[in-house]
What we know:
- The protein is of the alpha+beta class.
- It has helices at residues 72-79, 83-91, 93-99, 138-146, 150-158; strands at residues 2-9, 14-16, 26-38, 41-50, 56-66, 102-104, 109-112, 123-130, 162-164, 176-181.
- The strands form 2 sheets. A 5-stranded mixed beta sheet has the order 7-1-8-10-9. It has a 5-stranded antiparallel beta sheet with strand order 5-4-3-2-6.
- Helix 4 (138-146) crosses helix 5 (150-158).
- The longest helix has 9 residues, at 83-91.
- The two termini are 15 Å apart.
Amino acid sequence: xxxxxxxxxxxxxxxxxxxxxxxxxxxxxxxxxxxxxxxxxxxxxxxxxxxxxxxxxxxxxxxxxxxxxxxxxxxxxxxxxxxxxxxxxxxxxxxxxxxxxxxxxxxxxxxxxxxxxxxxxxxxxxxxxxxxxxxxxxxxxxxxxxxxxxxxxxxxxxxxxxxxxxxxxxxxxxxxxxxxxx
Length: 182
């Protein structure tokens, strides 16, 4: 039987960017947007606050864009400060590259194993799904989900008792499956 685990975000990740006021490198997004129109052109930013001094930074969502090229429902979501939109914006690689930021997902996600009862079986097949693109070490997920230490999970990989079609070292943010043989 195939078990399904889901990696779920619990809150918005921290934004890694240098603060101009205090040289801290962590910002917490408030989920609030600022939209400014100038004739036919529109700018939009996601606001973030420095975790140390509280200084505000603006993460550019779009800049000097013709207002007709922006979907009306997107503008409505920005005006409503939709937290779901803030998560989508932070996940967008174009926005991250434009603003030269990275995301810190530490303590911002959890693993839902849905009470997998058959983890003591001889062979366990697990499908891991990501609700958001959260980079996590597969060994950490497997250890947490199976109640193992990370060292024990790495030993099982070396012995060939923990196998997957993807590389289990490094970080992943996409769905994968693995098989654990006891």
